[in-house]
Amino acid sequence: MSRHAPTPGSEFARIEIIQRLLGEGVASSEQVLLGIGDDAAALAPVDEPLVWTIDSAVEGIHFRRDLMTLEDAGYRATMAAASDLAAMGARPLGLLAALILPREVSDADVEALVRGQRAACDEVGAPLIGGNLARGMELSITTTALGAAASPLRRDGARAGDELAIAGPVGLSAAGLRLLLQQNPAHEEAILAFRRPRARIAAGLTARGVARAAIDVSDGLASDLGHLTRASRIGAEVQASALLTPALQEAAALLDADPLELALQGGEDYALLVAGPGVGALPGFTRIGRCVAGEPGVVLVDAEGRSTKIVERGFDHFAPDPS
């Protein structure tokens, strides 16, 4: 008996799109025994502790279709979840994604979104091995990332005297968003940092065995470093000059904005921040400051040695709306 093609726009048509775009390459991962196409994925057991994380990207909150393509949205959502694995020093094993699709989303839209997911999976070196489809009022992408690490990095291991170092840019993503909101495409690097951030998986693996604490910069450097200082019960000093990269200063000038404000409060950079002895010398990292004894919090030190306590204004889903 011949098999009929699924009706365009149906759940089964979209599952076929996903299988076609994501199914290839799963077999090449030795950890994945069974990927997309069955009731659940199956992974071979590993000798290291498992590291699991989940992250949601909701249209209107985390992305807007007038500021990025759906391919960008799929890529970005996948990288945001994988970034948590980088922060734990974990090697990725596989990812799963649950998509909530409004009625007006077309098959072509689904294909674009999944192409972005596939591009991100290829970059982090782990396949997307399953998930779920459902209809809802707003488009959302919920990604589960699975990894493994012999000794997962945590937020609470920093000690006074440890260096602070970062892999990846800070502030550029926020600059890119502001430029797009102003309909000003003048700084391609900043716009790319917003639309296509990268999980720093290789940097996380490099930091294992050297860093004592780590966190990814998703809510803003000041806010996320503040989380690390509270978990570790120490303070932190950050050198202002270490944050002022040429690209950030160029983008800030286009916006007539303070580059330090962008770097400290911007968010969604998915850079990797680590603390530990000598972490500033690790390949791909830049030393930005040090951990100090005292109350948790972040102090900014300028070129003249003057210190300013930084107020954390990172993104908070449940903060009151400004009046």
Automatic annotation (TrEMBL):
Keywords: ATP-binding, Kinase, Magnesium, Metal-binding, Nucleotide-binding, Thiamine biosynthesis, Transferase
Domain PurM-like N-terminal: 37-148
InterPro entries: PurM-like_C_sf, PurM-like_N, PurM-like_N_sf, ThiL-like
A Pfam match: AIRS
Binding site for Mg(2+) 1: 55, 132
Chain positions recorded as Mg(2+) 3 binding sites: 39, 84, 216
Any GO MF annotation of the entry: magnesium ion binding
Gene3D superfamilies: PurM-like C-terminal domain, PurM-like, N-terminal domain
UniProt binding sites for substrate: 62, 268, 315
Top EC category: transferase
Binding-site list for Mg(2+) 5: 219
Family the UniProt entry places it in: Belongs to the thiamine-monophosphate kinase family.
HAMAP family: TMP_kinase
Full protein name: Thiamine-monophosphate kinase
Organism: Chondromyces crocatus
